[in-house]
Amino acid sequence: xxxxAVLWIAFVIVHAGVAALGFLLxxxxxxxxxxxxxxxxxxxxxxxxxxxxxxAQFPASSSLVGITESWVYPQLAIVPMLIxxxxxxxxxxxxxxxxxxxxxxxLAFAMLVGRARSTGRWVAAWFWLAFIAVLGPVGMYRLDxxxxxxxIAGSLWLxxxxxxxxxxxxxATWMKVxxxxxxxAAIIAVRRRLAxxxxxxxxxxxxxxxxxxMGGAAHLFGFILDQTDRGLQLEAPVSTVYLWQSVAGIPGSxxxxxxxxxxxQVTGPGVDTVIAVMTPLLVIAVAAVAAVGGYKAxxxxxxxxxxxxxxxxxxxxxxxxxxxxxPQYMTWIAAPIIVGLVIDRHRWxxxxxLALVIAGFTLGVYPLAYYSLLxxxxxxxxxxxxxxxxxxxxxxxxxxxLARVQIHPHVRAARHAEALA
Length: 421
Fold this sequence. Notes:
By secondary structure, the chain is mostly helical. It has helices at 3-24, 31-46, 78-83, 93-113, 119-135, 144-156, 162-173, 180-189, 193-213, 222-228, 240-247, 271-298, 303-320, 334-343, 345-368, 370-374, 378-403, 409-420, and strands at residues 232-233, 254-258, 263-267. The protein has one domain.
């Protein structure tokens, strides 16, 4: 049996298994699909009031998220939610969503594997399958399950087909913001950066025109405003202190459910100050990582050396300094690591291994021990704390690696000549 055939058999087994775990594991790992994606998309399909018996927590509404009201996601997020209905005839909307994610993964996987002759691509494909399996159903039954394969395909196409690669990343960004980190890395690292900028701008213009034509101009950037107003989500690294204060029973510290954002958050002494500081801190961290990458690019660093490190650094900055920290955020680190393994598997196997460990701890927290975590029990709090520490370790590792990226001697000499001229 060929290497490629084995990979595709493993692909089917992993996706079928993870899809089934969404129904079998506790704490509703696929809750977002039927609690929010289905009602939102059904309202769009109807265009008017939806039937009131969708879900007791979500009464009938004539609103179109992202158009007639602000939304936590960019407007293209509704597209996969609508497409999933095409497959719902099989066994309901949840299976329709899992089928759509599997098809998206299959397209990106086919591009990644090719004829399975490249060892780097072969190793990267096995890593991706292992990461999907270890992270579990939260990676499939969330919007991130659509944006990750788009990010992988877009990143792999950046050099040979920068217009297509950047367009895919821009489409993913208009579904969920995190791939903007990959676009920023591409603008810095890809030599045909005008193509990257042009494609991203073209996609953005089309989306803006569409939203305005639908009457949604007032809510075009509502997803940005919603993020700045949010509190500290339970799983975010910055929330670790307040989590342990809740475990210790310190007065004023607790875990609570936000009815508007449908997430669990933490509060405690001084939390308002921390909330106010986190968004500027995130901007500073992203800008600092981008500045290091920009300096390396200016000094002649190659795409192969720069892009995987810079993209992973920017993605991790989005995670480490974010006051939101949903478990599906861990899916983001797969794309840069896959690119790194394709380019240089010998240098990237260690962070790839650490990423698998991070995925395992994430599965342990959500969905396996999530109910106990909400009760502020020490064991799940320890699992989450270790996971967050490992994420910070990976961030520090990639920043140090980015700082050590080699610069091209000929370009460096040309820069010196220009400076002396």
